[in-house]
Automatic annotation (TrEMBL):
Lineage, uppermost ranks: Eukaryota, Metazoa, Chordata, Craniata, Vertebrata
Region feature Disordered, mapped onto this chain: 1-31
Name this polypeptide is given: VNX1 protein
Transmembrane regions: 155-181, 252-282, 337-357, 363-385, 397-418, 438-460, 472-492, 539-559, 663-682, 688-709, 716-736
A GO BP entry: intracellular calcium ion homeostasis
Length: 742
């Protein structure tokens, strides 16, 4: 990427030789310097800045709404020239469906705002791909050519559900035939047994009642108030008064004996298939069968096998399924919430009920409850992130900044504070060491693992990825400052503290020889704690004030005085001829309620996690360092990691890098000062003095990250280096002895 000075010397490249209509905005590329600097210039800009997709990070994008052919005028991308353009302006051009979505995309590039990939508004249906449209379509569409129905997913349905569901229908058919008056429903169950054994390529249709039957029933005044259908013709040879009694009796028998059992079976199939995600079509099939097919009169249900040359069917199609599995259902969302977060939400309820109702651990042990509490944090983190993004996108800048600063780190702070409170009550210093390990693990993981993994996955699809090195430089500078400030008390204690060892042995049997000492540490409480209370503690408070102040200065710098670093431009039309109003998934008040409820549940899960982590720390053979820097540090960040990977796959590596950098900066500049402030009002064992391993790992990670990101471009090899270094550090933590006090 060209340097900043080089950008300043060059002129903008795009040209326009005739004026555009009044309603067409000017090109965002800048003014022209000649009539013939056209497509070659744009291609050069794209080659330099690697512009790809609607969300290209850097490049000379044009902002020009489509106009009719008669109104179109020659512009910079319509000209042809052999000249090479002299410059390309670093620009981030975003394309959004509506104003709310544009505000969310703009917030993604702002320092201090949560980066969120999912939409906060409903996407226009015509903008969806055919794959996504198929995910949300009902199972009542007949295709012209469905292809072969013998697929792995269909066979999996047969093995998991088809055989026993079909057998249950056969048994229910026998029961209904035995009752005699339920014989029409017995025939229906027999037909459905063959359907649910292999429903693919078959159709269930609602048959219209012939007018002669309607007239006969109208003459007798006989109808079904529940089902709204006529009496079965095959069980009624002629129209006479007594048939109405048999119809009502068969319906009552069906609703008492047949329907509840089959509804329960289909409910089990629906829940199981939904949890498996790829089998969501089976869940739709069972839900539609329970709510529609089984509540229809038997003579209104027709089951047919489709053929390639068959003419369109008459009547309403209720069910028509071709595939039991679809691997793209990981994209499925319910009211804007990803299906994985929806499926994990009941786990939160199970965790809370099991954790607080079974306090003596009669049903499960501490390890199970700790695991459940930790896994429950993941969907809650997702809901908190979605709520923050929704509120920020629908509010002004000030409200968005306050919400992001207040709730952006609520997931981690909730766990850290509950752990420190429990350690203080028990007088156990191990909890404070675990919190320090988790803080260091979050810092190292977000600096090395998150961007490294995104670079590897994005590099598989894109040979080389580029990003805005200037915006990344702001985060890097703040990261250097924050790491230096956080570890300043530790370095101060190393210089002026007194080294104290637990035991020493003379290895040479000579009083003047070498001694081998164990469990050595720098004692800050020597001479009644004079060093700590007079020197280290004031330094800690000073750093805890300066770091948030530097964070606020960074916000003011990037969002107020130097916004040109990002140069965000929002296009006002996303498709030719389409302008959509925003239909938000969550309103501001709804998002606020969800945010508060998720935070409350997060606090409860964090309390359960800290309550049941003590046996794991005591009985585990793994170092407490390793548990802190891996499980406790990275599990709450999984939603952020997923967002980073999705951005990288769209060749938007700037946001992938900023996700890790912003989390690391918030750890040092917000989370640690808040913990220090908390210890003032609630004394705990937490002191801002880290072990040597934490200091060396953090500083080395920050230096390596800045070296990799120096040139503004990367590939999968550089990402592999970052990931490998992260795993090497994990190995060091794994084999490290447990910290003192544990």
């Amino acid at each position: 990427m060209a340097s900043d000075a080089e950008h300043g010397r060059r002129r903008r490249c795009c040209a326009q030789d005739t004026p555009a209509p009044a309603d067409v905005p000017k090109d965002s590329c800048g003014d022209s310097d000649g009539p013939r600097r056209g497509s070659l210039c744009d291609r050069h800009c794209a080659a330099i800045n690697n512009v790809q997709g609607d969300l290209g990070d850097l490049g000379c994008h044009l902002h020009r709404p489509r106009v009719p052919p008669a109104m179109s005028t020659p512009s910079c991308y319509q000209q042809h020239s052999e000249e090479v353009c002299e410059s390309c302006v670093v620009k981030t051009t975003l394309t959004a469906e509506n104003a709310v979505e544009a505000n969310k995309l703009s917030n993604n590039y702002k320092f201090g705002f949560k980066k969120w990939k999912s939409h906060v508004t409903a996407r226009p249906w015509e903008d969806r791909s055919e794959i996504v449209k198929e995910l949300y379509s009902d199972l009542n569409v007949i295709r012209g050519s469905g292809g072969s129905t013998l697929t792995c997913g269909n066979v999996l349905y047969l093995l998991l559900f088809g055989w026993w569901l079909s057998l249950l229908y056969v048994l229910m058919a026998a029961v209904m035939f035995i009752t005699v008056i339920g014989a029409p429903y017995g025939q229906l169950c027999w037909d459905l047994a063959g359907y649910f054994l292999w429903p693919f390529g078959k159709v269930i249709q609602k048959v219209e009642v012939p007018k002669s039957h309607q007239a006969c029933e109208a003459g007798m005044g006989e109808s079904s108030a529940l089902l709204g259908g006529p009496t079965p013709r095959r069980w009624r040879p002629q129209c006479w008064v007594g048939t109405g009694y048999w119809h009502r009796a068969s319906t009552a028998v069906w609703l008492c004996l047949g329907y509840p059992v089959l509804a329960l079976a289909h409910g089990l199939v629906c829940v199981t298939a939904w949890l498996l995600i790829v089998l969501i079509p089976v869940a739709k099939l069972s839900a539609r069968a329970t709510s529609r097919v089984l509540l229809l009169p038997p003579e209104r249900v027709l089951i047919r096998r489709l053929r390639m040359t068959e003419v369109p069917l008459e009547g309403e199609v209720i069910l028509c399924c071709y595939r039991a599995a679809n691997p793209y259902y990981y994209k499925y969302a319910v009211d804007g919430i990803n299906v994985f977060a929806v499926n994990l939400l009941p786990l939160v309820l199970v965790t809370l009920v099991l954790g607080y109702a079974d306090s003596p651990n009669h049903l499960t042990g501490s390890a199970v409850k700790f695991t459940l509490a930790l896994v429950s944090i993941m969907p809650l983190s997702y809901y908190i992130g979605m709520a923050i993004a929704s509120i920020s996108a629908q509010s002004n800048f000030a409200v968005g900044a306050v919400v992001n600063a207040t709730f952006g780190s609520i997931t981690e702070l909730t766990f850290y504070i509950t752990a420190l409170i429990k350690g203080s009550r028990e007088g156990n210093r191990c909890y404070a060491e675990v919190v320090k390990s988790a803080l260091t693990g979050t810092l190292v993981g977000c600096v090395l693992f998150v961007p490294g993994l995104c670079m590897v996955i994005g590099g598989i699809r894109h040979q080389e990825q580029r990003f805005n090195s200037r915006s990344a430089g702001v985060s890097s500078a703040l990261l250097f400052l924050s790491v230096g400030g956080v570890f300043a008390p530790t370095l101060f204690s190393k210089v002026y503290g007194k080294l104290v060892c637990g035991e020493c042995h003379n290895v040479t049997q000579n009083p003047l020889g070498h001694y081998l000492c164990h469990n050595c540490h720098f004692d800050l409480m020597d001479n009644n704690g004079t060093l700590y209370y007079s020197h280290v503690q004031p330094l800690v408070y000073t750093v805890s004030i300066l770091l948030p102040a530097a964070y606020l200065i960074g916000l003011f710098f990037t969002l107020k005085t130097h916004t040109h670093i990002y140069d965000i431009h929002i296009s006002d039309c996303h498709m030719p001829g389409h302008h959509h109003s925003a239909v938000v998934h969550w309103s501001r008040w709804q998002a606020l309620v969800i945010l508060l409820l998720s935070t409350l549940c997060m606090s409860a899960c964090a309390d359960l996690a800290t309550e049941h982590i003590s046996p794991i720390l005591t009985n585990s053979t793994i170092s407490q360092y390793f548990i802190g820097v891996t499980v406790l540090a990275m599990v709450p960040e999984l939603p952020e990691i997923v967002n980073g990977i999705q951005f990288a796959l769209q060749n938007n590596l700037s946001l992938s890098i900023e996700i890790g950098n912003c989390i690391a900066v918030q750890v040092c500049m917000l989370q640690i000062p808040i913990l220090v402030l908390f210890t003032i009002f609630y004394p705990t064992n937490f002191t801002l003095v880290f072990s040597d391993l934490h200091v060396y790992a953090s500083m080395f990670s920050v230096v390596l990250m800045n070296y990799i990101f120096m040139d503004g471009k990367c590939d999968y090899f550089q990402g592999t280096v970052l990931v490998m270094v992260y795993f090497i550090l994990l190995a060091v933590y794994f084999f490290a002895p447990s910290p003192s006090g544990c």
